[in-house]
Write a structure and sequence with these properties.
single chain; Porin; ten-stranded antiparallel beta sheet; 10 strands; PorT protein; Beta-barrel_OMP_2; signal
Length: 237
């Protein structure tokens, strides 16, 4: 993915950014009327870093969540509501992995390494509906803020499994809801708009499916388990 980012930056530099004085005093205005369209489309590539917010029923040692960098790809549909406000739909496919490390104190007897570790691999189909608040365009640059709600379908949830953690199966719900906040910048080249952005995603609903045993060391003391994430996306229109 690092190589892809380098290639993107090289492509941008060869599109005449320097020649057009993108950040200069008197830049050549690119794609002046593109964002005046009522509806336009694009796609994005990016990275994600997912975490879990864990709330407990009683005070205890924290479950350690190890985050890993995942990959995003998706489409963008942008509906112009007025000059500074757009409604965006950004469905995408998100791959991620989190490791939950349980303290030994959670178990009545000395646990094995496999007892203490739960690998949570997730393949998400993400459906965000966002409002984009853009500033005045300055030359070929236009910053913006994003905010809205989203629903997420976890294709790797194991929600239908009759087995639980006693059979090494960690289960979460298939659907979750979130709110999202972020910011980005539209950079206008001669042929397309490049929009890097960063966004925080915060789960609204508990997604944990408890084990059949109410005193399970893996789920018994968890009041709620909610996903949190940071997205870094590179969008092209």
């Amino acid at each position: 993915m690092k190589k892809i980012v380098v290639l993107i930056l090289l492509a941008l530099s060869t599109q005449g950014f320097a020649q057009n004085k993108l950040f200069g005093k008197d830049p050549i205005i690119n794609l002046e009327n593109f964002q005046k369209q009522k509806l336009y489309f694009g796609f994005y590539l990016g990275f994600n870093s997912y975490d879990f917010k864990v709330d407990y029923k009683t005070v205890s040692e924290d479950i350690q969540v190890k985050k890993n960098t995942g990959f995003n790809v998706g489409l963008v549909a942008d509906l112009r509501l007025q000059e500074y406000i757009n409604l965006r739909f950004e469905p995408g496919l998100y791959y991620t992995k989190r490791d939950l490390g349980y303290p030994s104190s959670y178990f009545e007897s000395t646990p094995t390494y496999s007892d203490r570790l739960r690998e949570v691999n997730s393949t998400y189909i993400h459906f965000p509906l966002l409002l984009k608040f853009s500033s005045l365009r300055t030359g070929n640059v236009r910053p913006y803020l994003l905010g809205g709600l989203s629903a997420t379908l976890n294709l790797s949830s194991n929600a239908k499994s009759i087995d639980d953690n006693y059979e090494q199966i960690f289960r979460v719900k298939s659907w979750t809801t979130n709110y999202e906040l972020g910011f980005g910048i539209d950079i206008f080249s001669e042929y397309f708009i490049f929009s890097p952005s960063i966004r925080g995603v915060f789960g609204l609903t508990d997604e944990l499916i408890r084990d059949k045993n109410p005193d399970s060391p893996w789920t018994g003391n968890i009041e709620s388990l909610k996903s949190r994430a940071v997205f870094i996306n590179f969008t092209f229109h």
